[in-house]
Amino acid sequence: MPAGIKGANQLMGSGSECEIPGLSARGILSALLIVLCGWGMGCSSTPDPAPRVAEVRSSEEQIPEHEWRSYLGDRSRAHFSPLQQINRETVANLEVAWVYDAGGADPAGGTQIQFNPLIVKGVLYGASPTMRFFALDAATGNELWSFDPGAEVEVWTATRGAVYWSEGEEERIFFGVGPYLYALDPLRGKPITSFADQGRLDLREDLGRDVGDDIMGVVLTTPPALFDDLLIVGGRVNEMAGAAPGHVRAFDVRTGEMRWIFHTIPLAGQFGAETWQPNAAETAGGANAWAGMAVDEERGLVFVPTGSAAGDFYGGERPGDNLFANSLVALDARDGTRRWHQQIVHHDLWDRDLPAPPNLVVLQRDGVEIPAVAQVTKTGDTYVFHRDTGETLFPIEERSVPSSTIDGEVASPTQPRPLLPRPFVRQEFTLRDVTDRNEVAAATVRESLAELRFGPLFEPPSLAGTIQYPGLDGGAEWGGAAWNEQSQLLFINANQVPWIVKMVAVEKGFDPFSDPAGGYTLACAGCHGMDMKGDGAGIPSLLDVTDRLSYLEIYRVMRDGRGRMPGFGGMTEWWELAGLAGYIYFADADDAPSKWAAAGGDLEYISAGYQRFLDPDFLPASRPPWGTFSAIDMQTGEIRWQVPLGDYPKVLASGDSGLGAENYGGPVATAGGLLFLAATPDSRFRAFDQKTGEVLWQADLPAPGFATPATYAVGGRQFVVIAAGGGKLEQPSGSSYVAFALP
């Protein structure tokens, strides 16, 4: 049932009776409203939700730490709750308490929900796949109100959370949709018009550079950090040539006025400018804080993890280490002044963004409490620094790494590597790491390796193709880590699958979006090759595709996907996809991008798309486990335990299990000794024992829960809720929020 109709049922009550046969109480009310409004009485078609929200709030004892009032639990990003009604002994009795269908899922699999809901004063705030923001009674899942930004906002990426702010009688919910940040009234779900432009702040403005109206200029995927009356904002940017700069800004929560800016690409004369080409601040892009930040309220510090500089895989136009890209930066939260920084990757060529908010932890050493910040990475390393000084709390050394074979590229000769904590994933790809599922798969992968470069971390991208392991999505990903201060354990789920990064030469100034051939380079060449010939094995040639498929069939395969090939229907407009299908349908060897790419004189290099390294069964080419869940002892730096996490549905269908799978979304730890984690493509939600990693409970979801759960208490009852949005790893999309509780 659509959310609006469902909400009407909840307001009227289900099963209402009336003495007039065939006419419900809801029908009488609707008819009466039509008559009254027709008489010009100025009534609204929807009742004011504030009384219902106030009623929900007044029925609850206000214990903030028993709710989930900040993204990932608190501003330190601990992913931890002190609740323990659900514990090792009781978790087996968990059952579904309520299900809310937010609506808007794309049947073709083009939508997701990555949202970590907020629970404030008994009200749950969440988002649908189409960015409709809503409030629910957290005890029942009944809708209280919803806000739809509408067609005025083009949405092409998911959002992961919101911000709640209050002071005295004032309170606001801040929610990002594409390039906009909305301020909403928590009681009514209406924009607060005194904030920015009628309740909406355009993040493409005030960057010190015109980024135009491009929707990809700056996009909020992760909610801002909150300090006092400041919203500290990063954002996602286009990571190709022409990308916006990733500067960090603070905005007034009441007015939307910018209060300070920190230039992640330093201006001329600023610290770090010498690590870029001259005047980089005027042209360079990226170095953005898309993954989220952590705030130390006592010290007045905000800890900012940044991503790579644009473009991701070729840095010939940006020589130097490129500060403050790929860095953890500690800023004064009041004015944006840099206190200290540590660069994790110099001159990034591997898209090794810092992928998750850091965790603010307190380490126990020799009876002394040390305030620290821990940053997990895509490489599977964990960096730990003193919050005040940036001093490393475990040894780090600069190690020599391979040089680049691409003209014009000068890779950094060294990269920092922590000696402790131990890596939580395998970090190099050798013949020993080839899949061992069966001999056919192993032989095919070994044959493919003969054409590729592979080896240790930081093997640079190449024209032949380089194995990146762990892959472009880590290692750690945006779900991040959970922290239990009492046990001194950090819990992190991770991916252990290889990807291929293949570079192609193009004429300088090449615009990959200018025509279908450019679209082919971005979307298709990574698998089918710039010569369109495939690999002669699992990837077919496209030069003879008309012998097998009609134009319409090509379009449908490109839109919906088939077998190993993903669908692009949810990623681009139909006419752009139709043009690309036409290019493929009519192309011959002389039209292949390899011809025009090699014809240019002055060349630059771009990536030929994002490509997982797969075996003939379209499973990862590395030996399992392909996804893991680990506990890191932060006193010793050792791995306390590690277990495989999840399975691919096709593995389960074959009768096998326990091989692990790629996973997206993070864990939540509780004082009940549990870890709650979904994240896997098998659509399962699990509870693990913090001491051992043993699965103590699991439940099936209507779609995979590629999100971080939340736990809270309402009416003396503890709930755990997860957004089941699917839409990744070839899994169907969903639109449900599912809450579990004890009977």
Features:
single chain; 743 residues; alpha+beta; Cytochrome Bc1 Complex, Chain D, domain 2; five-stranded mixed sheet; four-stranded antiparallel sheet; 11 helices; globular
Report the strand count.
39
N- and C-termini, Cα separation: 26 Å
**Rg estimate, integer Å:** 26 Å
Estimate the global geometry from the Cα principal axes. globular
Biggest sheet overview:
5 strands, mixed
Brief synopsis:
The chain has 743 residues and is an alpha+beta fold. The protein has eleven helices and 39 strands. Strands 1-33-34-35-36 form a five-stranded mixed beta sheet, with no helix packed on it.
Describe what you observe in this structure.
This protein is of the alpha+beta class. Among the domains are: 3-47, no CATH class; 503-608, Cytochrome Bc1 Complex, Chain D, domain 2 (Orthogonal Bundle), CATH 1.10.760. Helix content is 13%, strand content 27%. The chain has eleven helices and 39 strands. A five-stranded mixed beta sheet has the order 1-33-34-35-36, with no helix packed on it. A hairpin with a 2-residue loop joins strand 19 and strand 20 (368-376). Helix 6 (516-523) crosses helix 9 and helix 8 packs across helix 9. The longest helix is centred in the first third of the chain and has 14 residues, at 25-38. The chain is globular, with a radius of gyration of 26 Å. Mean pLDDT is 88; it is low at 1-45.
Lay out the secondary structure.
Elements: H1 3-12, H2 25-38, H3 50-58, E1 80-81, E2 95-101, E3 118-120, E4 123-127, E5 133-137, E6 143-147, E7 162-167, E8 170-177, E9 180-184, E10 200-202, E11 225-227, E12 230-233, E13 248-252, E14 258-262, H4 280-283, E15 294-296, E16 301-305, E17 327-332, E18 338-343, E19 359-365, E20 368-376, E21 382-386, E22 396-400, E23 414-418, H5 439-449, E24 466-468, E25 481-484, E26 489-495, E27 499-501, E28 503-507, H6 516-523, H7 525-528, H8 551-560, H9 574-586, H10 593-599, E29 603-607, E30 611-612, E31 627-633, E32 639-644, H11 649-653, E33 668-670, E34 674-677, E35 684-689, E36 695-700, E37 710-714, E38 717-726, E39 733-741
Parallel strand pairs: 1-33
Antiparallel strand pairs: 2-39, 3-4, 4-5, 5-6, 7-8, 8-9, 9-10, 11-12, 12-13, 13-14, 15-16, 16-17, 17-18, 19-20, 20-21, 22-23, 24-27, 25-26, 26-31, 27-30, 28-29, 31-32, 33-34, 34-35, 35-36, 37-38, 38-39
Helix pairs in contact: 6-9, 8-9
